[in-house]
Every structure is written in structure tokens, then in C-alpha cells.
Amino acid sequence: MGNHIFEGRYTTENNRDVVVFLIGMRINKRLAIRKWLPVFTTMPGMIRELYENQEELGFLSMENYFGLRTTVMITYWRSKEDLLAYSKGQKHLTAWKNFNRKIGDTDAVGIYHERYVVPQGHYEAIYGNMPVYGLAKASGHMPVTAEVRTAEKWLSVK
After folding, report:
1. For the stretch 102-135, what's the b/e string if a residue is b when 16 or more beta carbons lie within 10 angstroms of its beta carbon?
2. Model pTM score
3. Which one-letter DSSP state was computed for residue 69?
4. Nearest CA to 49 among 17, 21, 18, 75?
5. pLDDT tens digit string along 67-102?
6. Which of 1, 48, 119, 124 has CA atoms 20 to 30 A from the CA of 155?
7. 40 and 63 co-located in one domain
8. Domain total of the chain
């Protein structure tokens, strides 16, 4: 996997439900480093925990993006129940309590999340000349063939 480029068109398995969870932060006051830096530095430990316990936690994969003020982490989960169970786990719960204690309602830093529960057969992923990425890392990576031009067609062939 890694950065190896798979030439041609690829798709992903579309045979199970998937939960897509976006989580991130926005630095509203750049000079309030003491407020936003603890939020920013909490994530690496949780990411490590997720990858070290993937099967047990129901975590499938993730992608990260950093903008000038806003970050977003796109994560893929086996189920809504797995995601909710993780949110109540020690590492996340501790981070959430620390955030509320230290930042509370200050406007120096913002946080957000969005959760989408997507049933099998209701998503499509196409990758052209890309490394294994996004949903393909989470659900399997397969070439698009003459019979399977889209994930939707692939599902109907099965």
C-alpha cells in the first residue's frame, strides 16, 4: 500500500454498511496557542490507539487533512455502535473532559464532527491512478474491469 500508485481505475468493495465519521478543529484565534495546541496534540495518541486496536474497536481506516486554520480527519468504522463505544472509551473521554475543562465555551478554537451511516449498495468509490486511499483502505481495493465500470455495476454483478 503506502504511496505505491496503482495505474488505471479501481473501486472498492460495496458489500457492507460503513460509517463515515469526520472530526476536526478550527483555530479561531491564532495567537491563543495555549487554547488550541492541546486540542491539536491530543489526536495522535487516539489515532495510534485506533490503529493498534482496529479489529477490537471496529475502526477501519482514516485520512487526515490540515488547512491554514482547519483540520479534518475522515475515519471509517464498521458500525455506529463501534464508533459510539470508542467515544465512551478512556482515551477519548479523557480528551473530551480536558477540552471542556480547559477550553469550554471560549471562541479561541472550534471543534466539529459529522457522522454518516451508509448502507451497503449506497456508496461508490472510483480511484484513477492513485495509491490505496480512503474507503479503499477501509473496505478493500479492486480493479475496475470491462464488466465493472462503476461500483454500482459491480454490486449488481454479484
Report:
1. ebeeeebbbeeeeeeeeeeeebebebeebebbbb
2. 0.85
3. S
4. 75
5. 999 999 999 999 999 999 998 887 787 877 877 777
6. 1
7. yes
8. 2
